[in-house]
Amino acid sequence: MTALGHPQFLVQFSEVLVKWRCFFGFLTAKLGKDDREVLEQKLDLEQMQALLTKLGAEGDIRSWFASEKLHSSSTIDILDWNRLIDDRTKVPHLLVVPNLQTECLEPLLSKFAEEEEQQMKRMLQRLEVLAKCAVENRVRLMVDAEQTYFQPAINWLTLVMQRIFNTDHPIVFNTYQCYLKEAFDNVCMDVELSRREGWCFGAKLVRGAYLDQERSRAEEIGYEDPINPDYETTNCMYHRCLDHVLEEIERNRKANVMVASHNTDTVKHTLRRMEEMGLAPTDKKVYFGQLLGMCDQISFPLGQAGFPVYKYVPYGPISEVIPYLSRRVQENRGVMKGAQAERELLWTELIRRVTSAEIFYTHTL
Ligand SMILES: Cc1cc2nc3c(=O)[nH]c(=O)nc-3n(C[C@H](O)[C@H](O)[C@H](O)COP(=O)(O)OP(=O)(O)OC[C@H]3O[C@@H](n4cnc5c(N)ncnc54)[C@H](O)[C@@H]3O)c2cc1C
Fold first, then answer.
1. Coil, helix or strand for 102?
2. CA nearest neighbour of 154 among 177, 137, 170, 134
3. Closest CA to 270 of 251, 290, 245, 293
4. Which residues pair with 258 in a beta bridge?
5. Less Cβ around it within 10 Å: N or C end of the chain?
6. What confidence tens digit (pLDDT) does each residue in 60-118 have?
7. Which tens digit of pLDDT belongs to each residue from 218-233?
């Protein structure tokens, strides 16, 4: 997504979205609801009115929410709350947030500046061109996840496209990085949103590629590290998110997931869960993805067993692609283990061919 517009705009818009989400967190904490799962944190409209009036908000806060759009008529959850920012052009005066030091309300943004509105419009137009192209060519469009300071805006723009294009089946897939502490919440919220709004959920699940960068930025600027404390926690998070999406597929056969990983335990976990749920490879609800040139020993058997498998092809100038690939190799434990396994397989095959005098192997389909 950072190639489709000014990255700085994504940063600015992400900050707005994060502040808005923190405002909800602030209210749930004040009302003692913050110890529950994200979708269970519900604010009573009357209590919220009283609290916001105390903080200096003017007018009837209940009128912020058109009751016919609310999930439940007397309470607000995070998805109802986020809808206000979706409707921001209609209700710009609503965009206030508490100053966490003074606890007074202050404007979040009176309105996007003309230039930012244009940026947003252009990015959405470019995305739409890509999504239409995907529909015409009967392929899917997977939006990569990037650094956390871009991600809320990327997620928001992707959701706009999913609402438009994922009507019959998932065309646009969002990516969830399971090294993030908030990954499970993000997956749960978007699954629930797709249910409420009636579009088809499509996700690519990855562990996440910017670990070092995220940690050093958090330390440098002085905010909480957004990444799980260790590799094992990331593994648990991946499987938790995957199980949730697989359950959604079991419930609504229109949802799809791509397991984008080089990790054999994750692939085995997916196959086991699919078998338990009676999901066949040929149902084409669960895809697998590995980078081209990496972990063929995972991709090929999956493909031969009838699973839809994709090889990601990094495409671009060599000066950008080579650093990208070398970062992947550094980060991917799976790839390094995989490379060793691949070398052993190649040795075994070479020895087999030499000893059976079958140097050139012909494979008949
Ligand atoms: C098809 C495909 C698409 C991809 N798309 C994206 C994308 O859109 N966005 C993106 O960010 N990445 C993307 N990636 C890269 C991905 O996020 C991982 O970096 C890479 O796949 C390595 O993870 P793994 O699951 O293959 O296996 P493994 O080698 O088992 O896992 C390595 C990963 O575990 C995590 N990890 C390692 N150590 C720690 C630690 N100490 N604490 C917490 N977590 C840790 C890191 O995420 C690291 O990359 C993609 C990968 C593939 C194969």
1. coil
2. 177
3. 245
4. 204, 287
5. C
6. 766 777 655 666 667 889 998 888 777 655 555 556 666 666 766 666 665 567 788 88
7. 999 999 999 999 999 9
Identify whether the C-beta of residue 134 lies closer than 8 Å to the C-beta of residue 27.
no
The number of C-alpha atoms within 13 Å of 195 and in the hemisphere containing its C-beta is 14
**β-strand partners of 287:** 258
Q: Is 193 in the pocket of ligand 1 (CB under 6 A)?
A: no
- Report the nearest atom of ligand 1 relative to the CA of 144: 8
Q: What DSSP designation does 143 have? A: P
Pocket test for ligand 1, best of 140, 149, 207, 228 (most atoms within 8 A of CB): 207
CA distance linking residue 288 with residue 307, whole number of Å: 8
Ligand 1 close to Cβ of residue 179 (< 6 A): yes
**What's the rounded Cα separation, in Å, for the pair 284 and 189?**
24
Q: Which of 268, 266, 261, 257 is nearest to 312 (CA)?
A: 261
Ligand 1: atom nearest CA of 289 is 1
The predicted-structure confidence for 134-182, as pLDDT tens digits, reads as follows 999 999 999 999 999 999 999 999 999 999 999 999 999 999 999 999 9
Tokens representing 186 are 């993000």
Does residue 290's CB lie within 6 angstroms of at least one atom of ligand 1? yes
What's the rounded Cα separation, in Å, for the pair 312 and 289?
7
Closest-CA residue, ligand 1 atom 16, reads 208
Ligand 1 in reach of 34 Cβ (< 6 A): no
Directed axis angle between helix 333-355 and helix 296-304, to 10°? 70
Name the burial class of residue 273, with classes exposed (0-12), middle (13-18) and buried (19+) by CB atoms within 10 angstroms of its CB. Answer: middle
Residues 6 or more apart whose Cβ sits within 8 Å of residue 166: 172, 194, 199, 200, 201, 202
The Cα 38–Cα 36 span in angstroms is 6
Instruction: List, in sequence order, every residue forming a beta bridge with 10; answer none if it has no partner.
Output: none
227 Cα nearest atom in ligand 1 = 43
Ligand 1 pocket check for 327: Cβ under 6 Å:
no
